[in-house]
Predict the structure.
Amino acid sequence: MRLLTIPVALALSVLCTAYPQPLQQANNNVQGQQITFDSFRPQHHPASHNNANNDNSGYARFDDQQVLRVEVSSMEELKKLEATVEDKNLDLWSNLRIGTVDVRIPSSEIEAFKAAIPFPSTVMIPNLQDLVPDQAPALNIQAASSWNYTDDSFWKNYHDLSTLNNFTETMVQQFPDLVTRTSMGFTHEGREVFGMTIHGYKKRQEMEAMEELVEEVEELVEEASSWWSWMFGSSSSSSSSEPKELKKPSKPKKHPKAIVIHGGQHAREWIGPAVVSYIAKELILGYGNSKKITRLVDQFEFTIVPVLNVDGYAYTWEHNRMWRKNRQPTSIPFCPGIDPNRNWGYKFATGGSSANPCSDAYHGSEAFIAKEPKMIADYILKKENVVGYIDFHSYSQLWMTPFGADCSKIPKDDEDIMEAGMGAAKALKDVHGKKFAVGSVCKIIYQASGGSLDWTYAEGGVKYSYAVELRDTGRHGFLLPEDEILPSSEETFAGVLHLANFIRKREKQWGYWM
Ligand SMILES: [Zn+2]
């Protein structure tokens, strides 16, 4: 087995460039400041992708901020909560729905909020700042020396954008026959969005040459064995007749069907990019070692982009852990950022998104004006062969299907989409026991227009389109502890494998499958 480590010097230089001073020092700059809710409204920072010039203006703190879980029992209550959230520009942690909704509120505003929204509520996170330092960027530098993609140590920590990009580049370099670097385009701040396309075509050619050689040797052994039997009247060995793993491999196609997977549409949902990079790693290292993975990688092209909203993700590491949107300017100079997952072009701005540029759910001035959804949509249209799509988010543990914009409409493929989703959620649960609810965005959350899966299904022609909300169910919310990265990755990978296998078996009529 090959040992893959990022050169330590390179990795450290990447991190040092991004964080010229330890985080603790940066925090000291803002310690003691009275934090009010207003201070957490989106603030404009110079659009810079050269982090070396970061002036260490400070990483946002969240002292005395709480996450409150509100119980909503009717549509009337939901509308009231929606209006209050919009009016006070509160940070919704979970989606609006009848059921429970999580909202981040400064302690000082709790009483006023409860007066406006007198529904039953519980405090999920009493002091948000208590959870933030565990994921402080500087703490991860030490782990750099031990990154190793084969023993899972890389998935013991969250990683900044440079490190995740380094992971992708390393996969491309180390497995040139299996992995192709796939560029999606460039963001407002000039960062490249890129990922990996994983397919067994070239690698299989090499393996077939090797297998031919093995088969020749096996034939010789068989001949020798029958000669032995003829001479001495009994079989000396049964091993030569045992079936061989991978003896008759499926042949990859030059124009296979594709599955597109990405994380990080929403910047603060760090578990997404971590899980998505793990999925890539498992497909790559599993090829040739696992019969199931080998077959799937031979038959599908997996295009995997760990982080889509790279500007926003970088911003969560450098300025504000709670940033959700991208970093494009809006009509209000001090409220940058479009919610990429409200900006896709199917039934854009028809409900469940905000027209207020200062809102975290701002849908943008027109569909696809946000660069991130546009680049994925263009990629899918251009490829014409995409049959599966998963957009990873957090949190709530949901495996969601179309539609989100139009709640009176059911996809014509609903039965297959649901069956595949239920199977994926079951495969996921079988790993560590975590339950994921399955259903349309409309059914299990609430109306949300401009979301990715609606567009990929209705306009992109991707039959199996999903949005998945990963762990947890609210105990830590976006600040999922690092020791949950690996189990979350393992279970999610099982779900993805199930889904790909389901598509392979169900869609034989596409005439591609063997
Ligand atoms: Zn999200």
Summary: The longest strand covers residues 386-394.
